[in-house]
Amino acid sequence: MSETSVSQGTTGTAGSFVYTAGPATGNEILIDGWELIVGLEVHVELATLTKLFSASANRFGDDPNTNIDPVTLGLPGALPVLNRHAVELAMRIGLALNCTIQPSTFHRKNYFYPDMPKAYQISQYDQPINVNGFLALPDGKQIGIERAHLEEDTGKSTHFGGTGGRIHGSDYSLIDFNRAGVPLVEIVSRPDIRTAEEARQYVTELRSILVAIGASDAKMEEGSMRCDANVSVHKPGTPYGTRCEIKNVNSIRSLGRAIEYEARRQIDMNDAGETVRQETRHWDENDGRTHTLRSKEDADDYRYFLEPDLVPLHPSAEWIQAVRDAMPMLPGARRARLSQATGVPADAEAIMVVVERGQDDYVLAVAAAGGDVGRALVHVKEAFADEGATPTVPAADLAGLTLLEVRGSITATQAKTVLADIVAAGGGDATAIAAAKGFEAMDTGALEAMVDQVLADNPVAWAKYCSGEDKAMGALVGAAMKASQGKADGKLVTALVQAKRKG
Amino acid sequence: MSERITTADVVKVAKLARLDLDPAAIERTTAQLAGMLEHFADIDALDLGDVQPMNQPYPLVNVFRDDVIVAGLNRDEVLAAAPDAEDGRFRVPPILGLDS
User: Fold this and answer.
1) B31 lies in which domain range?
2) Burial of B43 by CB count in 10 Å (0-12 exposed, 13-18 middle, 19+ buried)?
């Protein structure tokens, strides 16, 4: 249920699952002897046109209460009818997260709160559509997915009076039901996350997947993706500690901060001999702390029962296969493909960035046009940040540039200058632009003469290098680049200097 | 149903359902619910090991609608029927404090 105007959400339905800690392995990541155990519950709004059970628009930012109907408002006699496309998007999420798609049912989750006017939320309970999957982080570690189930979103409450829009002590609240009934999928991870950084990676990767499969725009700042963290600490080899659920985390950065703060709080309590209470805590972005939200024992007594107005959902094997066949390549597979083509590790920054921008197809197109794929990756990462998935520069033009580079016709520095012109013009012939700028490779004889001169002009650096101080190379190459006004190829200069030391 | 329902159970459920029951109503309701639950105890006593649980009385699955927007209700008419409204929204009393 909504606790403030910004946070919302349904408490997790996964509370019935019991996890047991395994024996200590000695490989745990420890903070002052304590191991952090994190599970995440991520709610995503599905990119449908209409609500989960009614035909009002699912649209962010409309005037309040302009997308409402009898089902949304829980008027007497109104009956929900399931949105087929929402089911399909939920199935895409399940397949992308390696889940089993199974026959499922809907339950009523009963509570009195004005953001849900019919006094219950329709959610999937003990028979969710997607179960038992995993998400692979960029470094290959798998985070288990317990379930990813369908449910409806709540309305939006804004609190007035009292102190600063907080629910406590407010005088009254205003309710907008545009969001009530918007389809959500709640993705519940297993408690497999061990650091705040892994939590950030998980949410980042999940977001990329959701966008790639068109299931959600997954914008945390607009609330179409929301994240709650279950955090506990324990000593390796002992049972898991009492967990606290952290809500109101509105960015990936806040998620990391909130987990780090909460881990420290629990460790300090344990070290001081105090007992961590199971409770829901609210992350406050301003003071960088978590605060008690509620610890009422009967707050979670939702008296679930099967929704009598909806029939079971049994996706056929044919339907599941059709959804599977229509799935696009996922970010992890795209990174692996680009890694294989370039020889750069899949979790290297250039690969992560280029795949995130959707420019990996373009890099491969440059290679297909005869270009050097490694140089293409670097240039696309560095120079195409403002371009979309399909840069305006023709792949053949970038291919031409990379060829000049790898043949040694122009230096990396010169290539950047030429590329800036090509990007500004939306394309161009690298050879012609390089020639117009007077960029031409120095021939080997001229280069060697220049290097000899540089060594003569920099006797101290040269002596250091000859005595085994490899870092002195930097000064020599720098001097050569300066002497050649950037025309020399740094790699060739390095090779020449090395050869001269040996010789 | 091995345990009989108690007045404490009824008080808790009434509170969750926001029902204000006086002591006489709690006694009466407890007795009525106990009678209903005894009926379920009769069912529990049968051997139903090879009977599938029934999720739904209708022999239907997969009832869907297409994802097509249909104009809904007029906001002003709806808000005019609400107890209180402000700024295009429903105005409701303070949310916490209802329990006390």
Assistant:
1) 7-45
2) exposed
CA distance B17 to A324: 43
Residue B99 pLDDT > 70, yes or no? no
- Residue A422 identity (one-letter amino acid): I
Tally DSSP H helices, then E strands, for chain A.
16, 16
Are B90 and A116 in contact by the 8 Å Cβ rule? The answer is no
Delineate the domains of chain A, giving CATH numbers in brackets: 2-11+30-325 (no CATH), 331-436 (no CATH), 444-502 (1.10.10.410)
A152 band by pLDDT with thresholds 50, 70 and 90: very high
- Band the pLDDT of A167: cuts 50, 70, 90: low
Looking at the complex, report in whole angstroms how far the Cα of residue A56 sits from the nearest Cα belonging to chain B: 6
Residue of B33, B58, B62 for testing the chain A interface, max A β-carbons within 10 Å: B62
Query: Using CB atoms, which residue from B67, B75, B89 is nearest to A85?
Result: B67
Is B95 an interface residue toward A (CB < 8 Å)?
yes
Residue of A nearest to B70 (CA): A55
Nearest C-alpha of chain A: how many angstroms from B32?
Answer: 20
The distance of Cα A212 from the centroid of its chain, to the nearest Å, equals 11
Angle at alpha carbon of residue A146, lines to A140 and A152, rounded to 5°:
120
Under DSSP, the state recorded for A244 is: E
Split into its structural domains, chain B has a count of: 1
Q: What's the CA dihedral at A198, A203, A209, A213 to 10 degrees? A: 160
Pick the residue of B13, B73, B100 with the most A CBs within 10 A to test the interface with A by mutation.
B73
Residue B26 placed within a domain: yes
Residue-wise pLDDT for A448-499, tens only, equals 888 888 899 999 999 999 888 888 888 898 888 888 877 777 777 888 888 8
Q: Could B75 and A65 be called an inter-chain contact, meaning their C-beta atoms sit closer than 8 Å?
A: yes
What is the value of pTM for the model shown? 0.83
Neighbours of A4 (CB within 10 A): 19
| pLDDT, tens digit, 9 for 90 and up, residues A306-318 | 999 999 999 999 9
Angstrom distance (rounded) from CA A13 to CA A86: 20
**CB of B53 less than 8 A from some CB of A:** no
Provide the ipTM. 0.86
DSSP letters, B77-98, are HHHHTSS-EETTEEEE--STTS
**Separation in Å, CA of A388 to nearest CA in chain B:** 29
Q: Which two tokens stand for residue A321?
A: 């296969």
Chain segment A355-401, per-residue pLDDT in tens:
999 999 999 999 999 999 999 999 999 999 988 889 999 999 999 99
| Closest in A63, A168, A303 to B88, CB measured | A63
